[in-house]
Hints:
Blueprint: H1 4-21, H2 29-46, H3 51-61, H4 66-75, H5 82-93, H6 97-110, H7 122-135, H8 145-154, H9 162-178, H10 182-195, H11 202-226
Helix pairs in contact: 1-4, 5-6, 5-7, 6-7, 6-8, 7-8, 7-9, 8-9, 9-10, 10-11
Amino acid sequence: MTSPARRHFERVSAAQAARDAGxxxxxxxxxxxxxxxxxxxxxxxKSVQSIERKVAIKRExxxxxxxxxxxxxxxxxxxxxxxLMRVLLWRIDVGDIDGALSxxxxxxxxxxxxxxxxxxxxxxxxxxxxxxxxLALEADDASLLAALQEIERLTEGADMHDxxxxxxxxxxxxxxxxxxxxxxxxxxxxRALELxxxxxxxxxxxxLERELKQQNAGDQASGxxxx
Length: 227
């Protein structure tokens, strides 16, 4: 286990390296140390075929990057950072959407790119990977609503494929429905369908429209009775 003193050193060193780099690519001893660790961890992951096992390994190694990330976010001024962007993706992979968002805010603010190996922009990756994680859940999760709403705000206006944006609206619909907000859910499901007719929300729309119609009819009948 890393000592508190070592953790403090890593955080302070990362913050200083980020300040020194300005808006140029990251450099310095601490960054190169983390790059080397990233390379070894990436090799370890590449040697594993099981997705479930890969996720378990990422959960195991991600805490090793926490102090570095915290330092960069504290002192950074937009330097391109391979380590930071990889941690963003790994946090999404393990379901840590809030942790990914802490990096995503910084990356989108300064226009950091995910790397040459990716075809999608940072905004598109954040939207699609977070949406895919939410869609993979066995049940809708209202606790994701705030994070998904922030992702929508952060990436508003960013150019990406309509199918990717549709996934986000579908997950927002699911989260609103789980939070007991059917009208908001319906709005997002309809938007998902507008963006991609194969988004898989037609039955959700039909069901919510039917439920809201019944609810409105019941409210009207109750009002007439009281009158």
